[in-house]
Every structure is written in C-alpha cells, then in structure tokens.
Design a protein that fits this description.
alpha/beta; 5-stranded mixed beta sheet
C-alpha cells in the first residue's frame, strides 16, 4: 500500500492501490471474503486482536480483508491517512455527524446539500439537542459570522447537490480551524479525480461510493476519509456500534469499479463540458448550471481547486413544469432515473418527481425551478447524447 501511494497518477492508483496478489493462491483480483467471523490461532492471539495489540480480523463488523482493500484504495485516491467504508453515503454522513457532535452542540451547514442530509440536519438532529444553522451563501465571511462558541462542525458540499454551488475550500479551512471546528466536505460530486479536499486542509471527506467510485449503479456504499486518529475514534466508538458496515460483496463491486475510475471520470468531465456548452446555446434552454462554464458564478474558484468540473449539470427549459416533463418523456438514450455517477446518462425533473411534494416557494428558494432538469452525464458517445437532448428539446412549445 505505501509503495503504491508513491505514484502520483490517479489512473495508476485507481488500478493498483489497496490490492495485491493473494499470497496463498496467487489470485490477482482481491477475493470476496464472504465470512462473518475469523478464527484465532490460539487464545493468546485472540486476546491480542481484541486488545488492538495485533492487527488482524475477528469479525466483519470490525474489519474484513475485502473491505480493507477498498478502504486502502479510496485512501490512496484521496491522499488520506485512513478511510472507513460504510453501507451507504447516508451511513457515512450519519456516522460521521453522530461521532463528532452531541447534545448542546452546533453545526454550520451549507443550505445547498443532498436532500437526505438536509432532512437529517433539519428534522432529526434538533430532536437530539443539536442545532444547525443553514447558510444560503458561498461567502467564507458568512460562515465565520455564523460560527458560535459551541460550533463543532462546518459541513459543506462542492459542487453542491442539487444547485452545483462552488465553495472556496482554501478560504473555509482557516474559518473553521480558527474557531476550533472541524470542516467536513461531501466530495461525491467532484470525486478525488477532480478535487482532493484533504490536501487543501479539510478535516474529513465523505463519499457516497454508490455513485462515481462504484460507477456502475450496482452497489451501494459510503466512505469517510481523513486522519487516522480521528477515523479510529469514529470506527471504534461509533461505526461498529451503529452497525453501518458495508458488505464484503458490495466492497468488492466498488473495488472492481474503481479500477476504471480515472477513465470514466475523464469521459464524464469531457462529455458534461461539451453538453453544457451545447445547452447554453440552445434556444429552448433558459439557463445552464455547470462549474466548467465561464458564466457560472463559482467558475474562477472551480478552475483553481478542481482538475475537471465533473459529470453533473442542470439546465432550465423554457416553458416551466410541462416543458421539463416533455423533455423527460421524449429522450430516447438518456435513462429516466434518480441517482448519479452511473456509466449511463441519468436524467430527472425534480419539480415533477423528487421535489413535487415540496411547496413551490420553498423549491424555488433552493434553486429548483419549474423547468429545471438534472443530468448525470454518462460515458456514452457525446454526439449521441447531444442528438438525444436536441430531439427531445425540439418538441418543447
């Protein structure tokens, strides 16, 4: 593992990190250790494992060789000392939050975050005596002003879900650190191919590994990346007891998906950039939101802290809800589905699906226009994707 980390190329790390040929059989691929428990050589060895005096495996909820290979690969990609793999992205978020805050503590959070995270912060945490202040701002000064003496955590996404807002990580790091708060960043949209927040000073990075890391829409998982001491504390004191441990099989699927991670991200980035440019010039499109366009308000920051601009974009179709529904009903190549980061292109219209129960005023406040369409751009041929979107838009009144 340490030898692999010396390679700077994301492509090489994605293929090799965390894995080695099986010393018993010579198998090149990491085996699926589909075992719940592991035997001890003798009583003394078992005692050493349970007292953490010796490294090894006792029970898959505590650790598993397949899961460890996945953790080591993600750690190498994020340049992290350690990674903790979980059952899902939300498991990673909830485990992280519950390990770091308690009754009476305060969190400062971006307003533009994943809807399930917003639900956790706005509905669940207050019941447990944890207060959250939401900011509809990308200004580090506003974050500094919102911090209180009992603030333990600053939580952000960049690019954010769903509004694709860009926050300046280098500016937010001292804001949190100078106030004795940890800075946690959900890096699912950017991925370590495009941004490595830990290298910019962020304390912890969170992933829904279900998305770009796995890349094929067939395995659910999550990850927390950061310093070993902090990750050990989260693992021993919370993760094991809360039980959100990824299965060895899902870990293996994500591990397999990561070998093509760099190739996929190059295509996601390239396709999304070209599609964003096409849509920005289309007469039926009112606006396009993509960090790689110079018109994006966070473009200069994104250009500085991102290698590429990712595979997520959104655009507003002229004509409101009905126009948005028309596009979804008439695409032929794009797949009508939620989620993101799949090899195939996924398209959704939040106003008529995921956010249809949200009052319109509230929906508009968080940036979800009636005609907004969210596109998770896949790795298909970009001309085919552009043709598909063009023919669907052609019928918009």
């Amino acid at each position: 593992m340490s030898r692999i980390r010396e390679y700077r190329s994301v492509s090489t790390v994605a293929v090799h990190a965390g894995e080695q040929a099986c010393p018993v059989t010579g198998a090149v691929d990491t085996p699926i250790y589909q075992s719940t428990t592991f035997s001890f050589e003798n009583a003394e060895a078992g005692a050493a494992l349970f007292s953490h005096q010796k490294e090894g495996y006792v029970y898959t909820r505590y650790g598993n060789p397949t899961i460890k290979a996945l953790q080591d690969k993600i750690a190498a990609l994020e340049r992290a000392e350690a990674v903790l793999a979980t059952t899902s992205g939300m498991s990673a978020i909830s485990t992280c939050i519950l390990a770091l805050v308690k009754n009476g503590d305060h969190i400062v959070s971006a307003n533009s975050i994943y809807s399930a995270t917003f639900d956790l912060f706005s509905r669940k945490l207050p019941d447990w005596g944890i207060e959250v202040t939401f900011l509809d701002s990308t200004s580090p000064a506003d974050y500094a002003e919102a911090i209180r003496p009992n603030t333990r955590l600053v939580y952000i996404e960049t690019p954010s879900n769903p509004a694709l807002k860009i926050l300046d990580l280098s500016a937010l790091v001292p804001t949190a650190r100078n106030n004795n708060a940890l800075l946690v960043c959900d890096n699912t949209f950017a991925t370590p191919f495009n941004t490595r927040p830990l290298e910019l000073g962020v304390d912890l990075v969170i992933h829904s590994a279900t998305k770009y890391l796995g890349g094929h829409g067939d395995a659910m998982g999550g990850a927390i990346a950061g310093g070993k001491e902090l990750l050990d504390r989260i693992s021993v004191e919370y993760h094991r007891d809360l039980g959100g441990v990824i299965s060895p099989f899902n870990a293996w699927l994500i591990l397999r998906g990561l070998r093509t991670f760099a190739l996929r991200m190059e295509r996601h980035n390239s396709n999304a950039q070209q599609i964003a440019q096409f849509l920005s010039e289309h007469p039926k499109v009112e606006a396009v939101c993509y960090p790689g366009l110079a018109t994006h308000p966070g473009y200069e920051i994104a250009k500085r802290q991102m290698r590429g601009y990712g595979g997520m974009l959104s655009f507003i179709v002229r004509g409101g809800v009905e126009a948005g529904k028309h596009v979804l009903d008439h695409v032929q190549l794009c797949t009508l589905a939620v989620s993101l980061g799949d090899a195939r292109t996924l398209i959704s219209h939040p106003a008529s699906t995921t956010h249809m129960v949200v009052p319109r005023e509230r929906r508009l406040e968080i940036g979800i226009d009636d005609g907004l369409i969210r596109l998770s751009v896949g790795i298909e041929d970009v001309e085919d994707l552009i043709d598909d979107l063009d023919q669907a838009l052609a019928g918009v009144a």
